[in-house]
Write a structure and sequence with these properties.
The protein folds into two domains: 333 residues, no CATH class; 89 residues, Alpha Horseshoe (Serine Threonine Protein Phosphatase 5, Tetratricopeptide repeat). The protein is mainly alpha-helical and 439 residues long. 64% of the residues lie in helices and 0% in strands. The protein is built from 21 helices and no strands.
């Protein structure tokens, strides 16, 4: 009971200030969402939509995240190791898109339900189906493999039976919007990318070295974008060797010495597997994807970390979260500004920054931001196209035509038809208000 009280107090102390924060990213359009009836609104706002009351919305995140931390302690043994894992997890900055972001709360409930199924086996069938409120829930029961209750992994089939139509539609929709030619076939290149992402997320969970909504790692590379970024994505650098080492360790453990720490790394592996871009359906890299997977990393770490190092790491997590990053959720402006300051080499951060200036009709400032993005990723179709649009608005027709030529020479394979449609819109627009602009 004392350990549970400490976990609750830590979460209250370090997340209380989030009650004064605002809405960011997907929260904003969701404020205008339509609902079938009152109960539909209550359910969806409980899961991951804003109510319009910031204190209630962030309060729900505190409750959900605290529940996850308590379940980590109880479901993973109710002992000193699981307590250390729960405390480290509670303030780990890598979890911010679940612990703070309102629209990320679906990942939190999905995680809580997965842990509840492990703690109370008799509800695991129900919790497995309920966890599919988030796409991660279709695979999360596989993390039970390697535990003492490995047999519970069989409930993974239930979300596929009861929700297969929903999953099929969602995958088809995401593939239609996100996937390009590179995404539609397996290859050695995609395997290298997957191993690198696997290693990157592991180190990110441990050290939270860069917190941003727009990571430069794998930008336009994992999704088969421009050739320059894909070449970077295929380089066999440190994330690749970290990933290979983790795979090697798990194989060794499975054959010779399986421990609860090994299971922690297996949990991480199963929960992060859907986001390795072997079959890409969404953003190449996103911090929300590690929310459930990070439990395994913290649990494995808790087995080996000395008490002194535990206190140092806990202090580092608390400082990074409380004093340096929580401000990113003040409003959407600060989300973008913090993203760019944390990772100035992420071209999409500058791209988003440009859209903010565009929305204020500060076209020259928007142009400057897109030029900054171009300096980082010179062959990005979106950037070149938008620069051409802004130059046309500024009546720089010669320069505009040149950038449109560059844009059409850098169309991502598989998106030729859409690019042709956009080019036609650009050429035939009778006034600047009808010019297309790419998000």
């Amino acid at each position: 009971m004392r350990e549970m009280l400490i976990i609750v107090l830590i979460n209250l102390v370090f997340y209380f200030r989030t009650l004064s924060l605002g809405y960011v990213s997907d929260d904003l359009p969701a404020l205008n969402a339509k609902y079938k009836n009152r109960w539909d609104r209550v359910l969806k706002c409980l899961i991951a939509r804003p109510t319009g009351n910031k204190q209630i919305d962030h309060g729900l995140n505190i409750v959900a995240h605290t529940l996850v931390c308590l379940l980590i302690y109880l479901a993973l043994g109710g002992n000193h190791i699981s307590f250390m894992a729960a405390v480290l997890y509670s303030v780990n900055p890598a979890n911010n898109q679940g612990s703070i972001w309102i629209s990320g709360r679906g990942y939190v409930w999905c995680t809580a339900l997965t842990l509840a199924g492990l703690l109370w086996p008799y509800i695991s069938p129900l919790s497995a189906v309920a966890a599919s409120i988030n796409p991660a829930g279709y695979f999360s029961p596989l993390a039970y493999i390697g535990s003492e209750r490995w047999y519970l992994a069989g409930v993974v089939i239930l979300p596929w039976i009861f929700k297969h139509r929903k999953l099929k539609i969602e995958i088809a929709d995401r593939r239609k919007r996100e996937a390009v030619a590179f995404d539609k076939k397996l290859s050695l290149a995609k395997l290298i990318i997957a191993i690198k992402i696997y290693g990157f997320y592991f180190i990110f969970c441990l050290f939270s070295f860069r917190l941003t909504w727009y990571h430069s790692f794998m930008q336009s590379g994992a999704g088969g974008g421009n050739l320059i970024e894909r070449k970077k994505a295929l380089k066999l650098d440190w994330p690749f060797w970290v990933g290979i080492s983790l795979i090697g360790y798990l194989i060794y453990s499975a054959i010779f010495d399986w421990t609860t720490a090994s299971w922690g790394l297996f949990w991480y592996s199963m929960c992060i597997a859907p986001y390795l871009n072997l079959v890409r359906m969404s953003q190449e890299i996103s911090e929300r994807y590690v929310y459930m997977a990070n439990i395994g990393v913290m649990y494995a770490l808790a087995h080996y970390i000395p008490q002194e190092a535990f206190m140092v790491l806990l202090g580092a997590y608390m400082t990074r979260l409380y004093f340096y990053y929580t401000k990113a959720y003040k409003d959407d402006y600060w989300t973008v500004e913090t993203a760019v300051s944390e990772d100035p080499q992420g071209w999409y951060g500058w791209h988003t920054r440009a859209h903010k200036r565009w929305g204020q009709q500060s076209y020259r400032e928007a142009l400057n931001m897109w030029v900054m993005a171009k300096m980082i990723s010179p062959n990005e179709f979106k950037i070149l196209f938008n620069i051409a649009v802004v130059l046309k608005i500024l009546k720089k027709d010669k320069e505009s035509k040149e950038y449109m030529r560059l844009a059409m020479n850098n169309v991502v394979k598989g998106q030729e038809q859409r690019a042709k449609e956009l080019y036609t819109e650009f050429i035939t627009a009778t006034n600047t208000g009808r010019l297309p602009l790419l998000k």
